[in-house]
Amino acid sequence: MVDLSEYAPILLFLAVALSLSALFVFLPMGVSRMIGTHRPNSEKLSEYECGFPAFEDSRSQFDVRFYLVAILFIIFDLEAAFLFPWAVSLDQIGWVGWSTMMIFLFELVIGFIYAWKKGALDWD
Q1: CA angle, residues 71, 110, 86, in degrees to nearest 5
Q2: Strand pairing partners for 53?
């Protein structure tokens, strides 16, 4: 038989965390609804972005360059995320880890050059 009493502190922690987070989210909303002035109008309920009303349909198609730049950003951002743990543990992983990271960086540089040559980084 498995003794589940060892998990009681974890469940207690989760219950306290969930109740506190719910309290911090819903209590200010309820208090502001009770004591604040809640008078919605068309100006308050209108959609806006960057301080001015939207002027186009929100379902319009985006240029594929937006997605391409976003994907390239994620790829090269992950490269930086992989470099930090590698640099911290370099003395423990030795030459094998160093050479593996150099191969990884070489592949990313080849990908960067390919994207540059294809014009993926040009913005017209």
Answers
A1: 75
A2: 48
Q: What is the sign of the dihedral through the CA atoms of 20, 22, 23 and 25?
A: positive
If you write DSSP's letter for every residue of 42-60 in order, what string do you get? HHHHS-EETTEE--S-TTP
**CA distance linking residue 98 with residue 86, whole number of Å:** 8
3-class DSSP assignment, residue 41: coil
pLDDT in tens, 81-124: 888 888 899 889 889 999 998 998 899 889 889 988 988 878 76
**Gap between the Cα atoms of 10 and 26, Å rounded:** 24
Cα 55 from Cα 41, distance rounded (Å):
20
| Among candidate residues 28, 107, 32, 116, the one with its CA nearest the CA of residue 72 | 116
Q: What is the pTM of this model?
A: 0.47
Distance (Å, whole) CA 15 – CA 124: 53
Could you tell me the two tokens for 29? 């909303």
Please give the radius of gyration of the chain, using alpha carbons only, rounded to the nearest integer: 26
- Chain centre distance of CA 17: 22
Both tokens of 3, joined, read 């003794």
Q: Which amino acid is at 98?
A: W
